[in-house]
C-alpha cells in the first residue's frame, strides 16, 4: 500500500485529510531522510495498520536500514517515554517527579542516525501521543541544534495529518457498522 492507495481509502467526509496527505506526500521542504523517517515513525505511532503499512511502503527504499531502525526506535521509545512523562506532568502528587524513572533509554544517546533527525522524529511521535513535557524537551533540543522553526512545524504538521488519516479510517469503520 502507498499514500495514493491510502488516500483512496479515506472517506468523502474526510476529503480535507486526503488533500493534506497529497500535500504532505509532495512536500520537499525536508530532507528525504527526515521526511521518510517521519512517515515511518508517525505511521507506527498512529497505531492504525493501514496508515502504518502505507507510510512504511512510502519509506521503503528511501531510508537506509539504520535510518529505518532509528525511526522505529523513535516510535517505540517515545511510546514509553510519552506515557511516563505525561503521567509526571499530570499527576497532582509531585513526589513522583523526585523518583528515578528507571526506564532504559540508551537509544536517546546513540540513535544510530543524526541526533537532530532522531529528535525530530521523537517530537512528532510525542505530538501524536500528547506529551507536553516531551514536546518541550525535543523542541528545545532541535532549536539548540539549529533546526529552523519551519522544519519543526512541518514535522508536527505531518504528525497531525498522519493521525487524522488514522482517525478518518476508524470513523469510516464505525459508520459502516
TrEMBL record:
<dbReference type="GO" id="GO:0032843">
    <property type="term" value="F:hydroperoxide reductase activity"/>
</dbReference>
<comment type="function">
    <text>Antioxidant protein with alkyl hydroperoxidase activity. Required for the reduction of the AhpC active site cysteine residues and for the regeneration of the AhpC enzyme activity.</text>
</comment>
<dbReference type="GO" id="GO:0051920">
    <property type="term" value="F:peroxiredoxin activity"/>
</dbReference>
<dbReference type="InterPro" id="IPR004674">
    <property type="entry name" value="AhpD"/>
</dbReference>
<dbReference type="InterPro" id="IPR029032">
    <property type="entry name" value="AhpD-like"/>
</dbReference>
<comment type="similarity">
    <text>Belongs to the AhpD family.</text>
</comment>
<keyword id="KW-0049">Antioxidant</keyword>
<dbReference type="InterPro" id="IPR004675">
    <property type="entry name" value="AhpD_core"/>
</dbReference>
<dbReference type="Pfam" id="PF02627">
    <property type="entry name" value="CMD"/>
</dbReference>
<keyword id="KW-0575">Peroxidase</keyword>
<feature type="active site" description="Cysteine sulfenic acid (-SOH) intermediate">
    <location>
        <position position="134"/>
    </location>
</feature>
<feature type="disulfide bond">
    <location>
        <begin position="131"/>
        <end position="134"/>
    </location>
</feature>
<dbReference type="InterPro" id="IPR003779">
    <property type="entry name" value="CMD-like"/>
</dbReference>
<dbReference type="GO" id="GO:0006979">
    <property type="term" value="P:response to oxidative stress"/>
</dbReference>
<keyword id="KW-0560">Oxidoreductase</keyword>
<protein>
    <recommendedName>
        <fullName>Alkyl hydroperoxide reductase AhpD</fullName>
        <ecNumber>1.11.1.28</ecNumber>
    </recommendedName>
</protein>
<dbReference type="GO" id="GO:0045454">
    <property type="term" value="P:cell redox homeostasis"/>
</dbReference>
<feature type="active site" description="Proton donor">
    <location>
        <position position="131"/>
    </location>
</feature>
<keyword id="KW-1015">Disulfide bond</keyword>
<keyword id="KW-0676">Redox-active center</keyword>
<dbReference type="GO" id="GO:0015036">
    <property type="term" value="F:disulfide oxidoreductase activity"/>
</dbReference>
<feature type="domain" description="Carboxymuconolactone decarboxylase-like">
    <location>
        <begin position="99"/>
        <end position="176"/>
    </location>
</feature>
Amino acid at each position: 500500500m502507498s499514500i495514493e492507495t491510502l488516500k483512496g481509502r479515506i472517506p468523502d467526509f474526510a476529503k480535507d485529510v486526503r488533500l493534506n496527505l497529497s500535500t504532505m506526500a509532495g512536500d520537499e521542504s525536508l530532507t528525504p531522510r527526515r521526511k521518510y523517517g517521519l512517515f515511518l515513525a508517525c505511521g507506527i505511532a498512529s497505531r492504525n495498520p493501514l496508515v502504518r503499512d502505507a507510510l512504511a511502503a512510502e519509506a521503503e527504499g528511501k531510508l537506509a536500514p539504520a535510518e529505518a531502525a532509528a525511526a522505529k526506535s523513535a516510535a517505540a521509545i517515545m511510546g514509553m517515554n510519552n506515557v511516563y512523562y505525561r503521567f509526571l506532568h499530570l499527576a497532582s502528587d509531585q513526589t513522583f517527579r523526585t523518583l528515578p524513572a528507571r526506564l532504559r533509554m540508551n537509544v536517546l544517546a546513540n540513535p544510530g542516525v543524526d541526533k537532530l533527525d532522531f529528535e525530530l522524529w521523537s517530537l512528532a511521535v510525542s505530538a501524536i501521543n500528547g506529551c507536553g513535557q516531551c514536546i518541550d524537551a525535543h523542541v528545545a533540543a532541535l532549536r539548540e541544534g539549529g533546526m529552523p522553526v519551519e522544519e519543526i512545524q512541518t514535522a508536527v504538521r505531518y504528525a497531525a495529518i498522519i493521525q487524522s488519516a488514522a482517525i478518518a479510517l476508524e470513523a469510516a469503520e464505525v459508520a459502516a457498522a
